[in-house]
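Q: Here's a chain of 416 amino acids. Please give me its 3D structure as tokens.
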Amino acid sequence: MLELDTPTFRLAVAQFDQAAEIMDLDPNLRERLKLPQRSLVVSVPVRMDDGHVEVFTGYRVQHDSSRGPSKGGVRYHPDVNLGEVAALAMWMTWKCALAGLPYGGAKGGVAVAPNRLSSAELQRLTRRYAAEIFPLIGPDKDVPAPDVGTDAQIMAWMMDTYSQQVGYAVPGVVTGKPLSIGGSLGREEATGRGVVYVTQEALKHLKLSVENTTVVIQGFGNVGSHTARIMQQQGARIIAVSDVHGGIYNSKGLDVMALLRRDPSQPLHTTKLGEAITNEELLRLECTVLVPAALSEQITHKNAGSLKCRILSEGANGPTTLEADRILSEKGIFVIPDILANSGGVIVSYFEWVQDLQRFFWSATDIQNRLQSIITSAFQRTLHFSTERRVSMRMAALMSGIDQVAQAHLQRGLYP
């Protein structure tokens, strides 16, 4: 499909094809799983504060629903397009299956720069987008969540818009909400905490101690900041972090809490807590763990050979291209693939959805313990699969997830 032909979608399909070939997956299933089950493109007209109407383009893609309702974030970013959203939905399918969650993958988004909108404009955009995708979403159909450029407040507006349409409160329609309307403890930090749990498992596997670990993090948004904070609490030394403007480096270790206390609008490289570096320089720093926690395709054939980390823990979705993967493998870098490393967010989203449906809420300790149990189990299964089948961790994770979905399709059959 020409509409889907973007670099990110080509990467997702290439990864799938590679795994399917090794698995010798049924050709009929290959064709079914390459394309999304359902794609919706909507116009989102918004009355701006000065009175004129601007029309944005929104998307919601459901890749697969063979194992349950589809699940996936909503992204507000100028570069959002149908191909990117379809790729992210596909990765969500494998991610949910790998973690053993009863979901298929979905993704949504609006091509917009949210920081250029006022709060009132952002609310109007969100409510109109939610109204446009209303026929597709619901606690038993498709459950959105926050992603790049969205947060708990945006999820609250989406939940309220859906609830107004049906006439009663439906907290289970979205996850990542504020606690006051059915959100879950531990959801905001879940993706970062999950990155920490799998990174700790990798360190144990490689017989490396957390205390002697140095960590470099590209991206200091929700995922990167929580990863930095929790890794530092565990005893690791965070030597560099970055945002879209550039990074900051301190070989003795950064004061992460001071960085978190700064004005969020202040670029990291302007703080006095370390030496200013570019994002490109950050990726080439010598460290134990490198966490790409920004956007996709950051590690390519051009810079993969310059990486000097022992472990690459992918906090972002699709940060490494196929060509880069081969180079990292030759260098002996241990890769924790994105569909495993950043699955903490969807795991705790699942917990939130279950709590909403049951109207029974868990403690923060319950959340952390259950997250650790599920994600470390997924890591160990992937590691065992990788060793047994002599494939990379990425291929092991993809093959495990794809196999679960394939089994569901084979059991259910083809309708009609």
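Q: Can you summarize the key feature?
A: The CA atoms of residues 127 and 157 lie 6 Å apart.
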